[in-house]
Design goal:
single chain; alpha+beta; 4 helices; 7 strands; 32% helix; globular
Length: 171
């Protein structure tokens, strides 16, 4: 009897661990819900973009970025100035495996969503963020351009519960 209780607890622990790990790494889109195979050449190019701050992706500095802190930057120059004001330099962004979803509409508009680990260099060391990111691209004269990006701080369920407790007012 003791062995079966121990086995049941062990299995329950691993199930809990699996669900917690999935939740921490990001939500995965339902399989088959979105077309993820159309426009394969365009898809390959957009998926190869690892740095949206590359000026060659900017259409006349016409992008808008909304940071995880809620600030808005109108164009790359404002984005870089915002980083500088905060003592940060962009270092890297790495997508959490399994969270990227790229949808292309009519071959001219693309929306890419993902959970990403973002790193900035600061005088005090590297600053790490986990964000849920949405990026919009348009194609003009045969070239893809980044035009809109939005990042939201990623919270675990436990972090959200704490935030909710601290910021809920009673009616």
């Amino acid at each position: 009897m003791k062995g079966s209780i121990k086995t049941t607890r062990t299995i329950a622990f691993f199930i809990f661990l699996a669900f917690t790990t999935l939740r921490l790494s990001g939500q995965v889109p339902p399989p088959g819900k979105y077309d993820t195979t159309n426009y394969p050449e365009d898809r390959a190019f957009i998926n190869s973009i690892s740095n949206i701050f590359d000026p060659s992706l900017s259409l006349n500095d016409n992008s808008i970025s909304i940071g995880a802190d809620g600030t808005i930057a109108y164009g790359l120059q404002e984005e870089f100035q915002k980083f500088e004001r905060n003592g940060m330099t962009f270092k890297s962004v790495v997508s959490v495996p399994g969270t990227e979803l790229l949808r292309i509409f009519n071959g001219t508009t693309a929306i890419k969503t993902k959970v990403a680990d973002v790193v900035f260099a600061t005088p005090d060391g590297d600053l790490h963020f986990k964000v849920i990111r949405a990026e919009t691209y348009i194609k003009q004269e045969g070239k893809w351009y980044f035009v809109l990006g939005q990042g939201t701080n990623f919270l675990t369920q436990e972090e959200f519960n704490e935030y909710k407790k601290a910021h809920t007012t009673k009616n």
